[in-house]
Specification:
439 residues; 3 domains; five-stranded mixed sheet; 5 strands
């Protein structure tokens, strides 16, 4: 059999690829014709290529049914998983944890103590969380991961402290899913142990403080732009209810958050001074600070106003009277330029009234003017028993007929004059004594 030239082979190869003949338009006819031509040996130079291509095509054709079945099964499984995952409710946030070391960040926790979300509260916190993946991790593992990153960054030195504020989320959480008191206590201890455990293992002299607060206090602190390290000491000194109300006053009266944060130590000191002076009830302390904040939004005269309250109470005024006087002084001069002067006016009037009353009072050594002397007291002139008797003036009556005189002021056997004496008849009134003796 005569071999074909290369030109003929290329021409025939082109024809086989195009297959323009009407009788071989079906794919099955194409494949069968190609296989027959290749098997005839007329294309010896290209035989190896067409042989490998045929084997590969045969393997593909053989695997297609199995591959399609597997792909269809996987597609069904993936669709089912997707539908199931979308039907599941998202984990509900039941607690919030704010950690401050500078940087500061907040972790939102689910009922299973897993991290749902993490948010940086400052630039350092955002940069830290950008390098970490703590979402979905168990809370203790997430805290250890964060502690490790802080340690590597050199932020856990002796001068630092880790302050954590933890509170239960109530709003939007069904009653049966809220954290109970025992669960909240357990969560607080787990947080403390996670942080303390890492610092002890690494030998880091870092102070760890974990505080359990209320959602209301957390909201008030957030409105005042305060972080846990800013208000932790103030919260302990004031107590949760009073601290929350004082922080709410900042928002209610529109005090600048930065100024309020700067003067927080002054507010704490003034509050402690009021308590030391006996003004301990929460309504009384809030009344003083409300008037002080409202009259002085710049908090420049805060100490003066609280000190005035203390002074007025120590002078003897009731807390209500002292508050009324302070309110009157503020109303008379809202600029507070004459605050001390206005407070002293009632005090001066009282002092002048006391001096006038003292002037009208008689002195001990001087008799009172225009006042008659008291009559002589005859009882005071009577001698006491045992003292010598004063000389009596002589009487015109004979002394022998007169009975023996008793000690003035006393009768026989200690009886008073005019009373009947035992063993002696009583002398009727109007009868002289000597006549009675004669009878």
């Amino acid at each position: 059999m005569k071999k074909t030239s290369d030109a003929d082979n290329k021409k025939l190869y082109a024809m086989l690829e195009n297959l323009e003949l009407p009788e071989v338009q079906m794919p099955a006819h194409q494949r069968r014709l190609r296989e027959n031509l290749l098997a005839s040996g007329c294309l010896e130079t290209e035989g190896a290529i067409f042989s490998g291509h045929a084997k590969f095509s045969a393997w593909i054709n053989k695997m297609k049914p199995k591959t399609w079945k597997l792909a269809a099964s996987l597609a069904v499984v993936l669709i089912a998983v997707g539908v199931y995952m979308t039907s599941l409710p998202a984990p509900r946030a039941v607690a919030s944890l704010t950690l401050q070391v500078n940087p500061a960040l907040t972790l939102t926790l689910s009922g299973r103590n897993t991290v749902i979300d993490a948010e940086g509260l400052d630039a350092q916190g955002e940069a830290l969380l950008a390098r970490l993946d703590v979402a979905g991790k168990e809370m203790q593992k997430a805290l250890r991961t964060i502690s490790g990153a802080l340690h590597e960054a050199g932020l856990l030195g002796p001068e630092r402290r880790m302050v954590v504020a933890l509170y239960a989320i109530v709003e939007g959480v069904p009653l049966q899913e809220r954290l109970t008191v025992p669960k909240m206590y357990a969560l607080t201890e787990n947080v403390r142990q996670a942080l303390l455990g890492y610092t002890v293992e690494q030998g880091l002299p870092v102070e760890v403080k974990v505080y359990e607060i209320t959602a209301e206090l957390a909201a008030a602190a957030h409105a005042a732009d305060l972080l846990p390290a800013d208000y932790a000491d103030f919260m302990i000194a004031a107590g949760y209810p009073l601290a929350k109300e004082l922080l709410n006053l900042q928002k209610e009266l529109g005090i600048d958050p930065a100024l309020f944060k700067e003067e927080l130590d002054t507010i704490e000191a003034a509050m402690l001074d009021l308590r030391e002076a006996g003004i301990e009830a929460q309504p009384d302390i809030l009344a003083v600070f409300r008037r002080a904040f409202a009259a002085d939004p710049k908090l420049e005269e805060l100490t003066a106003i609280t000190a005035a309250m203390i002074d007025l109470v120590e002078e003897g005024l009731s807390k209500e009277e002292a508050l009324v006087r302070i309110q009157a002084a503020i109303k008379a001069d809202p600029s507070l330029q004459r605050f001390d002067e206005l407070l002293e006016v009632p005090g001066k009037e009282k002092e002048e009234a006391d001096e006038a009353a003292e002037a009208d009072r008689p002195k001990p050594d001087k008799p009172e003017k225009d006042k008659p002397e008291p009559p002589d007291n005859p009882e005071a002139d009577k001698p006491r028993p045992g003292e010598p008797q004063p000389d009596k003036p002589k009487s015109d009556k004979p002394e022998a007929d007169e009975p023996e005189a008793d000690v003035p002021g006393e009768g026989a056997d200690g009886a008073e004059p005019g009373e009947p004496q035992p063993g002696r008849p009583q002398i009727p009134d109007g009868v002289p004594s000597h006549e009675a003796d004669e009878e």
